[in-house]
Amino acid sequence: MATYQYLIDYFNESPLLIKLAWGVSSALSVAIVILTLYLKLIRATLRKRDAESAKFRKDYEATLIEYLYSGSENGTINDLQLTIIEKLKASVPIKSKRKIIISILYNLMNEVSGEMSDSIQTLYYKTGLYDYALARLKNKNWYIIAKGIGELTRFKIEEAHDLVEPFIMHPRHEVRKETQLYMVNMFRFKGLTFLDDLKAPLSEWAQVQLLETLQKFDDQQICDIKPWLKSKNETVVLFALKLAKIYNQFEVKDTLIELLSHPIKEVRVSVIEALTSLYGIEAKEMLKANFNELSLEEQISFFGLLEKLVVPSDEPFIEKHLFHKNFEIQLLALKILKSINLDKFMGLSKSPKSKGSKRIIKFVNNI
Amino acid sequence: MNKKKIVLAEDNSTLSLLLKFRLEKEGYELLMAQDGREALEVIEKETPDLILTDIMMPFVSGLEVISHIRLKLDLDTPIIVFSSAGQEEMVIKAFNLGANDFMGKPFSPNELIIRVKRLLS
Amino acid sequence: MDTSTVKIILQILHYLFFGYAFAAITSYIILSIISGKETIEYLKKNSFVNYKDILSSTMSPSITIIAPAYNESLNVVENVRSLLSNHYVNYNVIIINDGSSDNSLEKLIEAYDLEKIDFIINEKIKTQPLRTGVFKSKNPAFEKLMVVDKKNGGKADALNMGLNISKSKYVACIDVDCLLLEDALQKMIKPFLEVTNAKVIAAGGVIRIANSCIIRGGKLIDVNLPKKLLVQSQILEYLRAFLLGRMAWSRLNGLLVISGAFGIFDKETAIAVGGYDTQTVGEDMEIVVRMRRYMEEKNEKYRVSYIPDPLCWTEAPDNYKIFVSQRNRWTRGTIETLKKHRKIGFNRNYGSFGMLSYPYWFIFERLAPIIEAVGIVYFVILIILKEVRWEYALSFLLLAYIFSVLFSIIALYSEELTYHQYKKKGTGYKLVLLTALEPFVLHPFILYAAIKGNYDYYFNKKKKWGVMQRKGLTSV
To answer: In this structure, is residue A353 part of a structural domain?
Structure first.
């Protein structure tokens, strides 16, 4: 007791700074103890949840498969299926279980086709999962909305269209992207109309996903992409160029040639690449005439185009650039020469001009 | 008569369970593998009558599984590969390596049964 | 000097040390708050992302993994296998055998059916020449793989060779003995594709410690907490550095380092700045600083991104000797980089890079060990002079200690609430105990290594690379 009293007195008589140090130390120590205990609790909860989810998942996977195989040919729901729906329905209101059910359903939705994916969709409606997804759209947090839209996309819920559409103008690009993906997943090329007046940039990430979605469908009936090629939004132009390339849009060749004078370099380079795959020989003379004004990237792309679309009359132009200071252009020029005039190519190694290019000529000779 | 053995290599657990149920109902014996390496182990041990493998799998890809079966083990067990959209190139490679058939995802399990039966008949 | 002058000098020193400590603590608090915000934002953003489309798409941009290998014959075959099993479609792997004197190359040729091919290198960055040449596999299943055998030139030189050879838009530079998870590339490439208002020039990932983890066939099967206190302490240290420090700096767009073990770069920018510097031991930090400097000088908007997901696992030193030599090297790398680019420091032309990141790094990373060492010497002098006021000394030492424990615990929270990698029962208790022990187990050696690094840098110029003995990922 005496020591205790002594410590109290000692503390009271200490200077302010020391009092402060001890005060803060004790406060932090208390915090450490509380945080440690809470950490223990968190860990225990997480562990328990993991174990439960694993068990639940196994159980429900089996249930789902039972549901899918007990379906009748004509698509009506039988009693066994009804019991399974009731069983799942009971778990849906619990968030963690709902998540697992969705993930199991989704796991299959992408992998199986036909009547089976239809019956997964039926299950999605009947268990009330659909209503939860709709409720998400009304949430005030953007990421919940995005999740909701993503889910509706995965389960191909077309009838949510009117509710999803307004989000195409959402301030967060993540929500816009999910909405765009929804539109394209449901309505394919028709879903791309949002591009008509898209002001915000369309990220490469979004572009890849949109293209990937479009390629999933058998119906490859593409719409007119000219307006997008003429868009003021450069990312829309770039996206349209990718479409032109993938879907062989020969009819837009004239528009592409106009685009060769687009103010943005990246666009011009992509245009040359698109022309390459669309057999755009019409662009050749124009690019040759301007060659020295082009940026290095455009020059390289142009040689890429020549590599594919060269004709013997291009020889003088190629010859002019055989010893271009850029390695890639030189390599391409030599390759092209070899393909159109082997004799001249063979003669090169003797020419004094080729002194600095021995290595590269030898390489081209060997391929 | 002995049941015919099928190895199924697929990393999507739900899908493999779904297929397992269906194929077992048809009277086949199913051996499951979650990745390419497991698949190779099972194949070497059990010498199955048919192999179903996904192209994109953890660790050892479906392509490697096929090349191992055809080149290293020198077996001509029929192989069906599963592929997703965008993996067309890989499918071509799979055929070059000696795959017998392919199923593009999404596919219907019934369709798979038909092809399995055809290859095993 | 009379006693009053001495007193005044001591007083000034007092305030300086106190001020420094106070500033350091404040910066830690601010950084953890920022990192908390950034973590929540990151998790929200990624809660609904569907990576599946990106990984399987041939439209996604190409990535080359460049992995330099020097005398790695023990594990090289397995490690390459793990690099080849990434779940991204449009990528390839270049292994640069940097003049290994062992049989790495023969092992690779044998395991992957390699054959020598005709190849011409556009030497955009000057490197050591090829030795036997360039190899590719005859087996289409290993089509993604290329092995380049060159004369020895060090890690930076090997990476530069990879930059010259790669035809991809992006390059992932990694240590060959790192274990990359299958979804590493798709997650790391996301910022490059997603950010539209600036150019992303580089992205760094988290490095996790693989010691004692069970790895089979290039796959992480089970995460364990290692037995050795030294390794455990490094885990805690990495959690603090990656989950709190770098996360916060990423929000401020102020990252100066991308760990050499795993980072993705925009290839064009990396080549434009001349690739890796072969003259420094800290080439991984140096290239990021140089790329940032380049972008600042070009006046182009850019970002250096950071992905907190546990995607890359590597072996940490498990004995003090190797640990000290590793940290010694890091210290020298930091000194060299900061010195080489000292023009940036406190230079308004470089924006927050010059006014915030560089000074912070200089004051709280570069100078910290020196100031600490001076402080210790000063304290000893005070003891000798019998000038120590123990009640102050003890109460503030205690406060500093408790603060450091609390900071580590916050890092643990950050881990538990995000990635929760150490799931096993009983590990939590060990981790908490570690927060209390770590200041004694690890910190003195870090300090020692840093001082030694400073010494070596200034007085022992010929000091070679610290050699890290690799135990390999396959041994458990």
So the answer is: yes
Between A242 and A1, the more confident residue is A242
* Sheet containing strand B5-9, strands side by side: B29-33, B5-9, B50-54, B79-83, B101-104
pTM of the model: 0.91
Across C369-377, average pLDDT: 93
Q: Could you give the ipTM of this predicted complex?
A: 0.89
What burial letters (b/e) apply to B61-92, b meaning 16+ CB within 10 Å? bbbbbbbbbbeeeebebbbbbbbbbbbeebbe
**Segment C391-418 mean pLDDT:** 92
Q: Do C140 and B84 touch (CB under 8 A)?
A: no
Instruction: Summarize pLDDT for B12-70 with one digit per residue, the tens.
Output: 888 899 999 889 988 999 999 988 888 888 999 988 999 999 987 766 778 888 999 99
- A239: domain range? 224-309
- Contact list, B85 vs chain C (CB under 8 Å): 56
Distance from CA of C422 to the nearest CA of A (A): 10
Token pair of A241 as six digits: 């160029």
Name all chains with 3 or more CB-CB pairs below 8 Å to chain C.
A, B
Judge contact between C340 and C286, C-beta under 8 A. Answer: yes
Boundary of a domain, candidates A77, A97, A127? A127
How much is the pLDDT for C220? 84
Domains in chain A: how many in total? 3
CATH topology for C33-48+178-357 is Spore Coat Polysaccharide Biosynthesis Protein SpsA; Chain A (3.90.550)
Chain B nearest C-alpha distance from A175 (Å): 25
Homologous superfamily in CATH for domain B50-121: Response regulator (3.40.50.2300)
- Whether residue A299 sits in one domain with residue A234: yes
Reply yes or no: is the peptide bond before residue B106 cis, omega within 30 of 0: yes
Instruction: Provide, rounded to the nearest whole percent, the portion of chain C with pLDDT above 70.
Output: 95
Q: Is residue A301 part of a domain?
A: yes
